[in-house]
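Hi R.,

Here's the chain you asked about this morning:
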Amino acid sequence: MEKTEVTTIEIALTHVQINLVRESWRWLNFNRPLQETAVRFFLDFYFKQNPDCLPMFGMKTVDHYNKAFSIHALTVMHAIKYAVEYIGNPEQFQRLFRTVGQTHLRFGLTDLHVERFLEQWLAFLRANDAKVFDAATVEAWNRAGRIVVSQILNGMHTKSPPTTTENSTVTGTTSQQQEDAAAVVGHQVVPTMPEIDNNGV
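And here is the predicted structure, written out as C-alpha cells:
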C-alpha cells in the first residue's frame, strides 16, 4: 500500500494536556535517573514486544547489554525530552523528528516499530505511580506521541534525502540544546553521560 505523506501536524493538545505531559515528565526525571528510565523501558517493555530490534542496539539477548545499548537507549530518552520541551510548538521539532525517521531507515526501522514504541511507552508510563500517570495524563502523552510518530513516519517515507545533523537543529535553541538535538539525530552520546553497567537494572 502506498504511504500517504503527513504534511501537517493534525493533532493538537490543550494547555492542560501540555502541562500534564511536562509535569509528569518532571516527576519521572525527579524520581529516577534518565539513564535508568531508558534501561528499564527497553528491557522491561519494548524488547519484550520487539525482540527483532535487539541488533539495532548492539544486542543479541536482553540478558547482557553493553555500552552501545546504553548510549542508544539514553539518546532515545533525549528525543523524548525534546518532544516534551517543544510539544507546545510542534513545528519547532517537526524537522528534527522527520530527520530521525530518515536516518533510522538504515537501521531497519519499520512503521510497526515506531507504532509499537508509542504503545510500549504508554504501557511503561502506566506502570508508574497511578496518581501521576492517571487516564488524563496518559491520554495527553498519547496525543503528544501521535504527533511525534506522524513526523517520524513522514521522514521515513519522504523522497527527499536525509537532512544533515548540522541542518537538523531546532530554531530558537541554545547552543547546548542544539548539541543535544544533533546527538538525537546522529546517535551520538551526550558527552557527560556516565556508563551503565550490566547490573544496573
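One quick note: The longest helix spans residues 135-157.

Cheers,
M.
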